[in-house]
Design brief:
This protein has five helices and no strands. About 75% of the residues lie in helices and about 0% in strands.
């Protein structure tokens, strides 16, 4: 006689789904950035607007990546902590760690200070706006900085490679999460 299995508690099931979905979004973000975003930027006729657009893109991408990484790591770790002893599967911690490795680990491996540089750049930009006393639409500055096209190209290609690695790690975590949820019987 088979015993009826009790329904899973929502306290650890919901964070499990949220964390897995966040890993899926993180995978999609990195995939989109690495495959479809850099090519149009490389086709700009001059390096100055390409560099400006690239800086804006990296700031926004870094912000989204940081949020999704935290949500997936926190949700999956919380799910592991709230699960009953029999339901504390190590795949939850493995998935949570892939989110961290795919974000901060890739930055460390490639010794990428771009995240910190972009945060500093964004703070300086906000400070300039506040200094003006008026928050206004950003208009291309009349005094354009001289930007080397080869340096811009190298930065973009390097960034694309890092995004591919980030997407691979996030995708691995997402795949583990989907297989783990399927294996749990949900």
């Amino acid at each position: 006689m088979a015993t009826a299995r009790s329904p899973p508690s929502l306290a650890y099931t919901i964070p499990k789904f949220v964390g897995t979905c966040s890993l899926g979004l993180l995978t999609g973000l990195s995939y989109t950035l690495s495959t479809t975003t850099v090519s149009p930027l490389l086709s700009f006729p001059t390096p100055t607007p390409a560099w400006s657009s690239f800086q804006s893109l990296t700031v926004l991408a870094h912000r989204q990546r940081r949020a999704l990484t935290f949500i997936s790591w926190f949700s999956l770790t919380l799910s592991w902590m709230l699960s009953p002893r029999a339901g504390r599967h190590p795949y939850l911690l493995w998935c949570a760690s892939t989110a961290l490795i795919g974000s901060r680990g890739v930055d460390w491996w490639f010794q990428d200070d771009m995240g910190r540089e972009m945060e500093i750049w964004e703070r300086e930009r906000k400070a300039r706006k506040e200094k003006d006393g008026v928050v206004r639409k950003e208009v291309a500055s009349t005094e354009e900085e001289e930007v080397n096209g080869e340096v811009v190209r190298e930065e973009m290609v390097g960034w694309r490679k890092r995004e591919i690695v980030r997407g691979t790690w996030a995708g691995l975590g997402f795949l583990m999460g989907v297989v783990g949820i399927w294996g749990d019987g949900y």
